[in-house]
Amino acid sequence: MTARAFIVAIEDYSDSTSLATQLPGTNKDAKAFRDWFLETKLKPKNEEERKKAEASILACAGPSCEWRTTGTTHDEIVKELLKMVKDWKDKTDELYFYFSGHGFSYKNVSAVVQVDVLVASDFVDPENSGDTCLLLQEIQQKLWNALGPGNHYYFVDACRNPISIEDIEVPILGKKFPTSVRGRSNWYVLYSTALGQVAKVQSGFTQLLLKGLTGTGKAKKWESGKMYVTFERLRDYVKTNLQGQESEAKTVADADGFILELSPVPQSTCEVIVDNASEQDSFTLKVSNDLMDKDIPFQGGSHKFDLKPFDYFFEVRHPVATVLQVDPPPPGPLSLYEPVVVRFKKQPVTRGMVGGFRGGGMPRGGRSPSSTPVAAPRKASVTLEAAPNTEIHLVSAETGKTTISPARLAADVPPGTYTARVMERGVAIQTRQFTVAAGKPVKIDLLERPVSEVRERILQTVSDAGTSRYAAFSETLGPMSNWDLSLWLSVFGASHIVGAPGRFSKLAKLPLDTFTDVKKGASPVYVLAGFEKSKGRFDVALSQGARVKWEPLEKVKSLVGIYQRRVEAKPGPHLLSLRLADQAPVTLAVHCLPNRATFVNFAEDAQGNLKVHQFLLPIHSLFRYLDPLVTLYLDNDPLSIIRTMTLAQSKFASNHPINPEPGTKERQDWQALMYGKWLDPIMSLIACYEMIRRGEAKKEMNSLKIVIQNLRKYFGGIPDTEVIAKLLGLKAKKLDAPPLLLDGVLALEEAATKLLPLPASKLDYNSPWTAWRAAVSDTDSPARKGAKGRKGTPSKKGGASKKGAASKKVAASKKGATA
Q1: Tag placement on the chain: N or C end, fewer CB within 10 Å?
Q2: pLDDT tens digits for 327-365?
Q3: 8 Å CB contact between 738 and 728
């Protein structure tokens, strides 16, 4: 495995008039991270290997750092990023990206959307230094697209205090990051602080991070008999132990990241202390768990020994006296992932004891009162309930052992931490972590739902549509326990587009647009939206550029939080914008085709996360104008296919594999959808991008050529078709509009900026779609009246000074651009 490191450490901001000019300890922390990567991760054995290992590190740091490879200005950092891509493209299995310096995040984008900005050392003042900042999400996406398959780990020690998006426009890198033909990476991000918060100077984040990276405590786990530091365990270790601020993490991956194998497996020292013991006392320590059962004799009041990291039960026996565990108190197991001290207490022997027994005889019950009490139960019963159509996976955090059972799981398990997942059609629809104590039964309803008036009203409207455990919207779908509102909206909207009124009897009760009046050749855009957090007016707009005319979404009668609007459009590319109260508008590229509806649904959950799905579906009243093959397929099972497409889009957005399991109904739907001549071309595009992401394009070239041929024949004009053709080395037509998906924008490199109808600096790198934030006019919004859309970086309106002390220079309490 080839590992590389990219380090940015900015301790000196001496040119700044509005940020703390010195961040003491930054260079020292970065050097410590570099040392970990060099000595612990790479472990060079000789001088030749050391030179090779040092060549695997690019470091942007101050002139006092002898280990740096360049400086810390914006242009120097970008130049080093380009050098990395040029030299390491398709040669990097693991990338470790470390940043320590000033930073901030955008506010009003969304309460939960992460848009993080890193500030270079040549920042001067808010009015003139916008071009000294870098968008972290842009860096992540472009390295993900360029470096090839593997795992990318980002560790960011910077403030994320909110700055208004109107006060700063950070330009994109605008450089060439060529697309890898080998596939794409997973990526994992660990921030020293939460979104919207500042980070303290010398918070201890890096020191704690490095302890975790070396395998301290439960930053490590067992896997197939070996021990590893994993990102999941590292994340939890830092989050649990960091004091004074809350760390945060994000994962865009289909598996946990294995950072470091600990070989040989480290052992932890355990000291057993017995109070009231004399030097002549002899004891037997029984150490046991599911994997071992061992007796260790010792004499005197204490004993030290080493054990491999596991959870253990300890018992101490004495020939005559009773010995009780005092600290930590029983009955739970002892974790030996770190050194521990276990204290016992020897009970005094009662007077009159003869041969260890009072009065020289056996007591009632035939048991010596001086022996160790009966051991506490070692296991506990766990009962987990789901629904008939689901599968429960119970995973032990200790051993990684997984127990699987359909619908209901009942098992006796050792004490410890467990994760239970409810799976439906290969998707985790519910995840719960819980702790099992020895002898204490656990019973959990895994499908216990939070109160949702939005969903309750839907189920009431679609009478006999199911229970609180599952929904039954259609006989062809069967019971559906996935409570994802975006999935529900996809099924609801599609049922009215592809199905004539009454075809799906239950869903026909939803008062949605029926599309019975659509004329031949029409290409409407249909928006269906559900909001569980935001209130007030919601607007949409269809445009060709930044100037838009907002139209209100119409509340769907009898439902709560559900809105719709149909907008007439001409065939071809358009921009669709959505505006929520107190948030920057979101805009995405869409495409319209004759006799089809461009169906977009927006679903906001209770935390404010917004999911977007997009489809190009044939309209039931216009079937006769489509190719007969389309109609044949629609007569089969369209809602099941819509579900497959929706789940695939969600997986694609999370960088998870989207190809369903062989032998399933979903796999059959997938195969038909991939060839792009049936229900929805967007799914075919995603299938192609997915193969390219996984590095399977060469192997599947014949199939992909058929897909391109069918997309051109049945769905001509969609830009992504030509982008994919270009990526496959086929002859591609010239584009006049941006791709629908961000993968296509990244593939076009610098040429994409000429096609974008909105500023590239406003691209939303968190979205799988080609989308923008705050890129269209918002002049009628009261919240934005009087806002000045100037270029630059953060305004001078305040922020805490370092460690709370007064300062002439305005700064966040660590590494924060001013708010």
Answers
A1: N
A2: 998 877 899 999 999 999 999 876 554 443 333 333 333
A3: no
